[in-house]
Specification:
Elements: E1 2-4, E2 12-19, H1 23-33, E3 36-47, H2 51-63, E4 67-73, H3 79-84, E5 91-94, H4 97-105
Parallel strand pairs: 2-3, 3-4, 4-5
Antiparallel strand pairs: 1-2
Organism: Thioclava indica
Protein name: DUF4180 domain-containing protein
Length: 106
């Protein structure tokens, strides 16, 4: 499931992902919000989806201009799996929301 965050810093659009999420779900959610300047996506503890699908959907959003910068916040135990999918092209992985918000604000 993908839900829009109710509280996000000015200029940022935030999403929380939980349950099973595939690339198509991310693409559709971002498309409904796009274009956005800065996208913050936080993985909830209830996430049991496919990290490669989530990261792939976020990469696509950055590549296709739906979002200029994308930050993914994951729990510590998911960080290596998320970064293994690759960063770049305006996409970064973080383990704390504050670090992600700082990078998006820069």
């Amino acid at each position: 499931m993908i839900e829009k965050m109710s509280e996000c810093p000015a200029g940022m659009t935030g999403l929380t992902v939980s349950g099973t999420v595939v690339s198509r779900d991310v693409n559709e959610a971002v498309r409904m919000l796009a274009p956005v300047d800065r996208l913050l996506v936080q993985v909830a503890p209830r996430f049991d989806g496919y990290m490669a699908e989530l990261v792939g959907g976020m990469h696509r959003a950055c590549r296709e201009g739906q979002a200029k910068r994308c930050a993914l916040v994951v729990p510590e135990d998911m960080a290596s799996e998320a970064t293994m999918q690759g960063e770049g092209a305006g996409f970064r992985v973080f383990t704390t929301r504050s670090d992600a918000e700082s990078w998006l604000s820069a």
